[in-house]
Amino acid sequence: MVAGDAGRGPGGQHLCACAGVNPRCHNPPRHGLEGCTLMANIKVTVDDKAVSQRLQQLLQVVEKPRPLMLQVAETLHQQSMKMFEQQGFPANSWPSLKPSTIRSRSRAGHWPGKILQVTGRLAASVTPASGDDFAQIGSNLVYAAIQHLGGTIKRQGQVRLRTDRQGNLMKRGNLATFARRSHKQAVARAVNYSIVIRPRPFLPVTDNQQLNKPAFEAVMGVLNDAFMKSR
């Protein structure tokens, strides 16, 4: 079962968690939690036999599975929103922000606050969807996958260094001197740098590729209730 999936499709990078047999998945169809993104290149695989077996039983006896799948999708969405609110599972398990980030947010009036909710855009982008054979939550934001999984962003920038009238770099000891905007005698130099993003999972999947305990209990509760009503 695939509970988390990040990939690049026509609309950019996607991240999602799904349940069911989704025709958009690249995995062989089976009842359970399935990856649902297009052209996936990062995948978190979950193998939860209890959920798979119960879902298989239900899809064999339920004539109209769409309402059930909608309920499962909404349950997954609720679990994701809880992770945003409590900042991970267990609560407050996300890595703290760097002191420089906290200072920057404080100056902008966004701190104290939630780590991944400066504007609320990321949390709002996580939406549920469902059909007869799948239920899913996901985000289509470009940065959703790296916030969930972590990673390194490589960027290229430039710095302006002061020069003398002959174009030679001005130095203090062995170090070049940065130029301010007011300095007319300067040269631009390209610099490469990396930004390391630590993982802060907001989909209800653990590091060992299982649904976390609250999500498992919530989804199983939905499936068990539906199974009892179908008998």
Structural topology:
Elements: E1 2-9, E2 12-20, E3 40-45, H1 49-61, H2 66-86, H3 99-108, H4 121-125, E4 127-130, E5 134-139, H5 144-149, E6 151-162, E7 171-172, E8 175-176, E9 186-197, H6 213-230
Antiparallel strand pairs: 1-2, 1-3, 2-5, 4-5, 6-9, 7-8
Describe this structure in words.
The structure is a single chain. Helix content is 32%, strand content 26%. It is α+β, with helices and mostly antiparallel strands and 231 residues long. The protein has two domains: 2-150 and 199-230, no CATH class; 158-197, no CATH class. Helix 1 (49-61) runs parallel beside helix 6 (213-230) and helix 2 (66-86) packs antiparallel against helix 6 (213-230). The longest helix is centred in the first third of the chain and has 21 residues, at 66-86. It is elongated and about 90 Å long.
Structural class of the secondary structure composition?
Answer: alpha+beta
Percentage of residues assigned to helices: 25-40%
How does the major sheet shape up? 5 strands, antiparallel
Poorly predicted runs are: 1-13, 20-44
Order of helices and strands: EEEHHHHEEHEEEEH
| Terminal residue distance | 26 Å
Strand neighbour order, sheet with most strands: 3-1-2-5-4
Mean pLDDT: 79
Radius of gyration over all CA atoms, rounded? 24 Å
Q: What's the structural domain tally?
A: 2
Classify the oligomer.
Answer: single chain
H/I helix tally:
6
Overall 3D form: elongated
Q: What's the number of extended β-strand segments?
A: 9
Strand content: 25-35%
